[in-house]
Design goal:
It contains 21 helices and 13 strands. The chain is of the alpha+beta class. It has a seven-stranded mixed sheet with strand order 3-4-5-2-1-8-9. Strand 8 and strand 9 form a beta hairpin. Bound molecules: adenosine-5'-triphosphate and magnesium ion.
């Protein structure tokens, strides 16, 4: 039994009052049946788009995909996507159906959907429509392609990555024949736009069961992220590391907050290791220079996946600096804050904690990071000065004293360093006295 919110329930009533069979369908049915709150409600109906327009005349309707039979009804509960029962034609390009055929029945419509758990429909009076055993699979925690899995992944390879994402979000297992077909058809992902790949991968990284997806389907991920494939199975040969580079990174992923930039940074932080690996005479592995090498690899990967410049910069800073100590004195914390700002400092703390837990060998590192976090909070609470903006004097003050050109900026920077290092108080009087002394050459 699914309790429908008002908006979809009313929309179904209105469409059916006009003679068009209608259902809620797809992810919202799956999520309701597993006791989760759906993030949106989708309807499918026998009505064609022009017939939907007639039923909802006077309402706010958006033309979001008329050629595919989809209109979006704006309701008080949010947008409602309504799609005509349809079957997809052939897929020549491995991603988009060549044509869409409107079909008569809900069963035909469910047949075009990718996984059985998403190929169920629900109606307040008629109940569940489940021709592919979706409910059984949901109860068993199984992801199974609707129909012939090879054909389904060949039609639209994005489904391979949707399945990986659902493993991560739902914690389900992929049914063996479906998993085998994902692997056989993985090269079809070459046809899929980088942005779509990126969206699915980000969803995968942020899922509750990310580790299960990333370890269980590592080879599929290695195909779409070839830059990272050498991490898989890369033995670290080092007593500080219990896991391979890939497994260590995956464990770091699950330890950082489920925020896309942090999860990507955790996945990428050690991607430079395979290329930098050396083994010394004692047989111990070393990875000199891997943060810098990793930055270069990550930069290319993030550009290829069309990340925004801001996200890329944020992730690359983390990759490049993940191994550098944050400093364990208030002075070092202030210096670092001054260099990278509070937000990046907190990012680094999160990544370093994930990295430490992911290593599985250094529990004491966590306590040390917590101490640094406390230092950071203290520095911020004391409103200690760590940026030019917070300095009690500005460029105009220095100009008034007779400085000009680049000397102004250099002096401000020197004042900030002196403040951070505790050599001078951040007050106007003290700072101006220091400027005069420096200008007179007395210090
Ligand atoms: P979520 O919204 O949580 O990502 P979802 O299953 O609802 O998951 P949507 O992208 O909202 O995914 O799609 C709604 C429904 O449409 C799915 O449940 C599925 O039945 C079908 N669907 C979506 N994308 C595809 C696809 N690429 N191939 C086949 N069916 C699809
Ligand atoms: Mg959905």
């Amino acid at each position: 039994m699914i309790a429908l919110p008002d908006a979809p329930a009313r929309a179904i009533e209105r469409l059916e009052a006009a003679g068009y069979e209608s259902w809620v369908v797809g992810g919202c049915v799956r999520d309701s049946l597993r006791g989760a709150q759906p993030h949106d409600w989708d309807l499918c109906t026998a009505a064609r788009p022009d017939e939907m327009r007639a039923v909802f005349a006077g309402e706010r309707l958006l033309e979001t995909g008329v050629q595919h039979g989809t209109l979006t009804l704006l309701t008080a509960d949010g947008p409602l996507e309504i799609t005509t029962f349809r079957a997809d034609g052939a897929y020549a390009d491995g991603r988009h159906p060549d044509g869409v055929r409107f079909v008569g029945s809900i069963e035909d419509d469910l047949a075009r959907r990718d996984l059985t758990v998403g190929a169920m429909a629900w109606h307040p009076q008629r109940g569940l429509c489940d021709p592919y055993g979706g409910l059984d699979d949901l109860q068993e925690g199984v992801l199974r392609a609707v129909g012939d899995p090879d054909a389904r992944f060949r039609e639209d390879a994005l489904r391979i990555l949707r399945t990986v994402r659902f493993v991560s979000q739902l914690g389900f297992a992929v049914e063996p024949a479906t998993a085998a077909a994902m692997r056989r058809q993985v090269a079809r992902l070459d046809c899929v736009a980088a942005e779509r790949v990126c969206t699915e991968l980000t969803g995968t990284l942020c899922g509750r069961f990310a580790r299960r997806a990333l370890l269980g389907l590592a080879d599929v991920l290695g195909y779409v992220l070839p830059e990272l494939a050498p991490m898989i199975g890369c033995d670290q040969r080092n007593r500080h590391h219990r896991y391979t580079v890939w497994e260590h990174s995956v464990r770091a992923v699950e330890q950082v907050p489920a925020e896309p930039a942090l999860r990507w940074a955790a996945l990428l932080h050690d991607c430079g290791k395979p290329a930098c690996k050396t083994i010394d005479e004692q047989g111990v592995g070393h990875f000199y220079g891997h943060p810098k090498a990793g930055r270069a690899i990550a930069d290319e990967l993030l550009r290829r996946l069309r990340f925004s410049g801001a996200d890329r910069d944020r992730i690359l800073l983390l990759v490049e600096q993940h191994d550098r100590p944050l400093g364990d004195t208030a002075q070092l914390v202030r210096r670092r804050l001054s260099a990278i700002g509070e937000a990046r400092f907190r990012d680094l703390l999160a990544l370093k904690k994930g990295d430490a837990v992911g290593q599985g060998t250094h529990p004491e590192a966590i306590a040390a990071l917590q101490a640094i976090e406390q230092q950071l909070n203290d520095v911020l609470a004391a409103q200690a000065c760590f940026s030019l903006r917070q300095l009690a004097v500005d460029g105009d003050d220095l100009t008034a004293l007779g400085l000009s050109g680049p000397a102004v900026g250099e002096m401000l920077r020197a004042l900030l360093d002196a403040t951070i290092d505790g050599q001078v108080d951040n007050t106007r009087t003290a700072l101006l006295a220091l400027v005069r002394a420096r200008m007179e050459g007395t210090i």
